[in-house]
Model the fold of this input.
Amino acid sequence: MEFFHVKRDIPFMSYGKLTTAISLITFVLAVFFLVAKGLNFGIEFTGGTVMELRYQKAADLSQIRTRIDGLKLGETQVQSMGTTVDVMLRLPNIKDKNSAQLSNIVLEALKIDRSDVELRKVEFIGPSVGDELFTHGLTALALVCLGIIAYLAMRFEWRFAVSAVIANMHDVVIILGCFAMFQWEFNLTVLAGILAVLGYSVNESVVVFDRIRENFRKPNLRGKTVPEVIDNAITATLSRTMITHGSTELMVLSMLLFGGAALHGFAMALTIGIVFGIYSSVLVASPLLLMFGVTRDNMVKPVKIKEEAVV
Amino acid sequence: MNRYPLWKYFLIIASLLIAMVYTIPNFFGESPALQISSGRATVKVLPDMVDRADTIAKAAGLTPVDSFFENGSVKVRFKDTDSQLKAKDAIQAALGDDYIVALNLISDTPVWLTRLHAKPMVLGLDLRGGVHFLFEVDMKAAVDKALEKTAGDIRRELKDKKIRYGKVSRERDRVEVQLRDAETLAAANKAISKILVNLKVQTVAENGNYKLVVTYPDAAILQLKNDAVTQNITTLHNRINELGVSEPVIQQQGEGRIVVQLPGVQDTAKAKDILGRTATLEVRMVEDDQAKLTEAINGNVPVGYELMSERRSDGRNTPILLRKEVELTGENINDATAGFDDKNEPAVHLGLDSTGAAIFKTLTRDNVGKRVAMILVEKGKGEVVTAPVVRGEIGGGRVQISGSMGVAEANDTALLLRAGSLAAPMNIIEERTIGPSLGKENISKGFNSTLYGFLAVALFMMIYYRVFGVVSAVALAANLVFLIALLSLLGVTLTLPGIAAIALTLGMAIDSNVLINERVREEIREGASPQMAIKNGYDHAFATILDSNITTLIAGLALLIFGSGAVRGFAWVHCLGILTSMYSAVFVSRAMINLIYGNRRVNTLSV
Done:
């Protein structure tokens, strides 16, 4: 069985203008939502107390809201967590009350109306932790980029390294844009998911780059122009690209569907990341490569690279 | 062609078998158990406790499934939670307060596997339920306190050596001692330098102003901070022991943070209460000058003094004026027990260590007729528990605190003091409570999503690539086994993000197989013979696999280094998964293909 057996090379590079335009528009949109709406930061970043409750029968959110508002705890949020019985409360940090006291007060108040409420989870994060997480997250991001640039520059050439990283950042910004647009909660697992996408998406670019490098060295492609060589590389790896992404997406979708609330954000970040990962590795990284003016001479060096052979 | 030497096959089979052995314990499940450990530093749990516990349980009509001694504690397994709970009451009652009997879950792994150190993965709190705290040690308070103590030491030493001194004042980061002339300055310098060896003692003599300046060098400050964290960890250990939690996690995180995880704790309120109590004991002198007290009550507290309230037996609080210098702290307390004083009122008996005993002896000798206050400081707020009049010198290091307290309060105070005081106050900056039912749900959801994903991918591979697809699916399964074995062997704690990482790693691991299979197809398309196609397919794919996996690994390592908590758990599994997937995709699948096609005439490949 073969889904993607393409006989003639698809002229991806001639769509360059179109794909760049699409990328730019989505990118600008993502940045717009990030600036206009901002991320809906989870409790790890903002501090505060989150309580997860489960009722035995469907919960009455408005009743809970009235009850909580009566406690005068400041700005609180009551929302359902996907099902009718699961409820999430978000409370701000309150001076001279720790979360133990806070959660007890809230639980007792809620028990007045309904005794079938069960406390499933309480999370309290002090205000000082968030900033730190933020700087650590940014440092990790920067470090990943630097590491990837260094490795690719060493194995390939600087043009490849820079193209891959730009294509990657494009994915990351778009995921962030989606989270901002839909106001999904941005928490630590989402951050982990986004950083995983970075690794994943560069993986994609590398496979295509690898083929481009190989093509430059192939004698039967000597007469072709650089865009043609790139087109050939993308077409040749297309089947593999689609299938790999497909199977990873299968796994991630399974997580999104069956993983429950705890894995939801993570799976969501990856689901979006994988879709854009395919796009960017093929249609962002390679045109960038052209734009930076990659030529055959960049890759074909007099020294023949030793083949790693498996006996 | 396409033949591995025999030893290579053996090596791969051996690695698979070893991985299986270390994976198996994860499938045995857990049974309810009791953990008996020592409740006091002086009491040791010995292997003979196994028989004792068995006898007690049998006397109560309960039969333990298994009982054994491990790492200084005895574990007894029962067949259900009902007999576990009954046995807990029976054993705790029979052994008394010297021992802690905690509820626990023990893996049902057979003994022969345990002997090979094959243990199941440790489950994180999000998968088993429990409480998680992140404490931050108040370093400024630790330094302040050390400076106060140094000031006290200086005063005592100068008094002992009969050197006349003026004001001893604690500035922001140093202690200054005013002296009368050059002669006393030299004498004081000599005396103080001798007792404060780690500190920097400087003399200043200008314009007829003689003073001694004592500062903490950077090394001493660092030492101080480290000691504060270490002592707080010890203290938390003691307090948690009192709670009777099995397998708690108490670790330093970063410079001044401490993580405490109490798995399976149900009574979170009590845990928070005992852990959250940042109580320290301080002994300070009382100023009984009525004029100064009145002035202080009117809002004008004299320099070097502090106004506090004293608890009276009628429940009212009365103001009391104290000197700021701390003469003695809880650090010097060896043990504390609740009891009764000679008037048969509830009291706490303290035993001091040698330094504490010496300080207390001097203190009581020099202050006969004056009052000394015992202050319990909780969350930065002090309360005078008792302030008795010193009737004479108290040597030997036995001190009694009595005052206005009930039996329960005396017990509580003793518990807090016995558990040790904190070197510096701590704040809870992060707290999580995960209900046990949520934990179970998280496991099953995480497990199921991985399983369904795996089945979908394996099925697709088998249909799409036929024989090569079957090989890929087997390699993927081998990868899962390697990964779980490695995680179990390294004792990595499995958390929900960890499960997510396993799922993602499996999704990504198939990439290597797809690369290989597509390459083989391509080779055939270009007219290579089947054997050549296999060889070239694997060889060409290898360079790509290496490049793409190393870049992913770079991302994973950065996560590992800079992530914390959830991110780190994810990164660990992710990085290990990349390594195992490279091994299984390249070597395990090649070995299988070689076995199927290698070394014989093949006309077509099923790919």
Summary: The first strand of chain A starts at residue 40 and ends at 41. The beta strands of chain A are 40-41, 48-55, 77-80, 86-91, 117-125, 185-186. Chain A has a mean pLDDT of 85.
